[in-house]
Design goal:
14% of the residues lie in helices and 19% in strands. It is built from five helices and ten strands; from the N terminus they run βββαβββββααββαα. The chain has a four-stranded antiparallel sheet, with no helix packed on it.
Length: 219
């Protein structure tokens, strides 16, 4: 992802300030902090303290000096009421706490979601373990245009679908999704979440469970 200039947009600064926060569901729809996810259970978890079993598939990544960031994750599974998507938030300020948790010291300048093209999703749906999803693919929202939030993410001419490149001949070899996001660095978000991760950083570090940025900070 890159934050590109244009109008009052400025590229996301690198160095010690810029961070992007991402979250997505597992292949079979366990969604960090709740499983068997649907719109109702998702809403019920807002402003609920996180524990060490509730932070999987969530992370914070720092951009480079050009505003680029690389995130390693999985393709999210589908759940009731939504097309498959990634969540993304961009913060210009923050730091890594002693236990590896990211602490934002300023407002998020972007909150959004990234989507996949339907051809890619059709292939993924037929691939294990996605094919073992308890929600049948025929009952999923497989067309982004039918998703309630997709029109907002793709408003004003923006395309919220990532450009997908296959790493190898088989989809199980991996995918690369790329997208550019313009950031209004003067925007001040009204959103505030009380969620945070409270876990034993030393134990996580010894087990190799900390993300790279958190492990570097802890070490």
């Amino acid at each position: 992802m890159s934050g590109g200039p244009g109008g009052d947009m400025t590229s996301m600064p690198g160095g010690g300030g810029a961070a992007t926060q991402s979250a997505d569901s597992s292949a079979t729809t366990s969604y960090g902090a709740y499983s068997g996810a649907d719109a109702q259970s998702a809403a019920s978890m807002l402003n609920t303290d996180m524990d060490d079993n509730s932070t999987f598939l969530r992370g914070v990544y720092q951009t480079d000096e050009d505003g680029h960031v690389t995130v390693y994750s999985i393709v999210p599974g589908w759940y009731s009421g939504r097309a498959q998507h990634y969540h993304i938030k961009a913060y210009p300020e923050g730091y890594i706490a002693e236990n590896g948790t990211f602490i934002a010291t300023g407002s998020a300048v972007h909150t959004g979601q990234f989507f996949f093209d339907n051809d890619t999703l059709q292939t993924i749906a037929a691939t294990y373990p996605y094919s073992s999803n308890a929600i049948d693919w025929s009952d999923a929202i497989s067309n982004n245009d039918d998703d309630q939030w997709y029109p907002y993410q793709s408003a004003t001419g923006y395309n919220a679908e990532m450009d997908i490149t296959w790493v190898g001949d088989e989809i199980t070899d991996g995918l690369i999704g790329s997208i550019s996001v313009g950031l209004n660095m003067s925007y001040a978000s009204l959103e505030l979440s009380t969620q945070y991760a409270d876990f034993d950083a030393e134990e996580y570090y010894e087990e190799g469970m900390l993300p790279a940025a958190s492990a570097d900070a802890f070490a």
